[in-house]
Specification:
Layout lengths: L1 E5 L6 H12 L2 E4 H9 L2 H7 L3 H18 L3 E4 L10 H5 L3 E7 L2 H11 L6 H6 L1 H20 L3 E4 L5 H11 L4
Parallel strand pairs: 1-3, 1-4, 2-3, 4-5
């Protein structure tokens, strides 16, 4: 069985994936980590493959190879824009795909907490309205894109452990 976790950036795909594999005993792959290992940074990947469609096709090829290597795996994906490269995954009964969602306010809190971009907290707070608009626009885009292809799992004010329980129950994983 393969589980693909879709969602916008900074939503918690990797964290939920890591907790999920602890519960169900699968292997875990974080796509962003794999890309960073190969290209040093996400920007290195984007420089080499500057076309979004090409990047999404390459990501789909990566997923296919990981699925062949591992029987039971959870993969946290980088945000995907062109879903046609993923049609085989959506149609495969041995692959579970879902879109992880949350409210913009909660995603902003993750941004404050994780701050992978190393943005000073004072700057984040000063420009919160801007970030909230951008987060909401990303959410609207990705949620609309993914809605026709997969279920949505909302994290809205639930603990990470509650989300993992919800996923396990919904897909009968334990």
């Amino acid at each position: 069985m393969t589980i693909l976790i879709f969602g916008m950036g900074n939503i918690g795909k990797s964290t939920v994936g890591e907790l999920l594999v602890r519960k169900i005993g699968y292997d875990f792959i974080d796509m962003d980590t794999k890309i960073k290992e190969k290209y040093d940074t996400m920007l290195g990947f984007q420089d080499e493959y500057n076309d979004q469609y090409e990047r999404d096709e390459l990501r789909a090829e990566m997923i296919s190879s990981w699925i062949k290597e591992k029987e039971n795996v959870v993969i946290a994906l980088s945000p995907v824009v062109y879903l046609d490269a993923y049609e085989d995954f959506f149609e495969d009964s041995d692959i579970i795909c879902f879109d992880l969602t949350d409210r913009a306010e909660n995603i902003f809190k993750y941004l404050e907490f994780d701050n992978l971009l190393h943005i000073p907290q004072s700057y984040l707070n000063k420009h919160k309205a801007y970030y909230m608009r951008e987060i909401q626009a990303d959410f609207d885009y990705f949620h609309t894109l993914y809605a026709s292809k997969m279920d949505s799992i909302s994290m809205d004010d639930k603990s990470l452990y509650e989300i993992v329980e919800k996923i396990c129950k919904k897909y009968k994983l334990v």
